[in-house]
Specification:
Organism: Neorhizobium turbinariae
Structural class: mainly alpha
Number of helices: 10
Order of helices and strands: HHHHHHHHHEEH
Largest sheet: 2 strands, antiparallel
Strand order of the largest sheet: 1-2
Radius of gyration: 23 Å
InterPro entries: Homeodomain-like_sf (IPR009057), HTH-type_TetR-like_transc_reg (IPR050109), HTH_TetR (IPR001647), Tet_transcr_reg_TetR-rel_C_sf (IPR036271)
Protein name: TetR/AcrR family transcriptional regulator
Keywords: DNA-binding, Transcription, Transcription regulation
């Protein structure tokens, strides 16, 4: 008969070794997915803990609670565009400000289309005024702004062009088109369903950017 050795007192009381980095990542991904699926109505400590398969106390320990999780998600959403364009401050990839804005606007549109949570947050930003949404929006805007500053380096817009207002209008148009596509598949009679539809939008966007910035 197989004899199972008894555990010593030390072995019985020894805590399980946790992979903190893995647990933090699991919590983050669970929170992000839950927010994308259910919005803030289903977003809570207990729900995140269940999705991540961990004790809720670890959420407080690693993130300080829901506020810390929201800030982490906002920071992540503010930097997702950088994965689409090589980060360059010396002009190796981007020779003019027009080059920068053509790439940034095009990839910003692609990133929005590929990320349902970002689309939802953009929609929340213009339809809900809650502390949680404001925290997400501020973190996303701050992170994206820092990245853009690093990207542009010494590049400057043409004289006489109000770049801040122009870029705000370009990004607002992109966001509205992507949200409209998710809701109805079109905007102002322009179809936004197939890749061919979006290729036309991207080509028009590039022409607009070049008409402004050269």
């Amino acid at each position: 008969m197989l004899q199972i050795p008894e555990l010593t007192a030390h072995q019985a009381s020894a805590p399980k070794v946790r992979n903190r980095a893995g647990t933090e990542r699991a919590i983050f991904l669970a929170a992000r997915d839950l927010l994308a699926e259910q919005g803030f109505q289903g977003f809570g400590i207990n729900a995140v803990a269940r999705r991540a398969g961990c004790d809720k106390q670890l959420i407080y320990r690693y993130y300080g609670g829901l506020d810390g999780l929201i800030e982490a998600i906002g920071n992540d959403l503010g930097t997702w565009v950088k994965d689409k364009i090589p980060e360059d401050t010396g002009g190796m990839f981007l020779l003019t400000y027009g080059d920068l804005m053509e790439k940034l606007s095009t990839y910003f549109m692609e990133a929005l289309r590929d990320d349902p949570l970002v689309c939802k947050i953009v929609a929340w930003e213009v339809s809900q005024d809650t502390p949680q949404v404001r925290r997400l929006a501020e973190a996303r805007t701050k992170a994206l702004g820092k990245w853009l500053d690093r990207m542009k380096g010494s590049l400057t817009p043409p004289k006489g062009v109000d770049a801040a207002t122009t870029n705000a209008m370009l990004f607002a148009a992109i966001q509205h088109l992507v949200i409209s596509a998710a809701v109805s598949g079109q905007f102002a009679g322009v179809p936004l369903k197939t890749e061919k539809d979006w290729e036309k939008v991207a080509a028009t966007l590039r022409r607009l950017v070049r008409a402004i910035y050269g």
